[in-house]
Specification:
Helix content is 31%, strand content 13%.
Length: 183
Amino acid sequence: MLCSSLQAAPAARPAASAHPCAVAARKPAAPCLRRRAPLLAAAADAAAPAAAEAAPAQLPQADAALDDKLSSRPLELDPAGYFIIKVDREAGELVADFYTNVINEQGLACDPVTGEVISCKAGAVRLPARTWRGRTAKALSVEILEKDHGFQPCTHLEHANYLGRELQRAEYALATGAEYVQD
């Protein structure tokens, strides 16, 4: 659950019989994962032999330029912590490891125990404060963001948005055998 000061007003919901992708306000875009499940399964079967050498999916050049521009915008780090997302292919699950941090005066993430700036270099070892596992991005995001854990793992809407995007990318990689590298 997001911080009460950051909660958005509840969105209008479609009629109970309406499919979530059939909301009139949305343009008919690509079919949702429910409709794509057979396609994803077929793609995973086709990609399985090449999974070991699979490369991350490439965006069209115009989309890649926009993505790069959006990735370079300034963001405020979430003082609650951060997530490391992984794909556990053997278990067929997405894994979200949550690490606590504090933000110093320079806006850098620091270890809450030592006060040291958290290193992004390989070899730095921190244990997650909490780990969540799930088979789909939706199941995992609901578990992380909508259940009461006694603390709020995301206190910024931008962080919750980012988490949702990364879980979707990880789910796609799990379904297709593509490589997943967290953005």
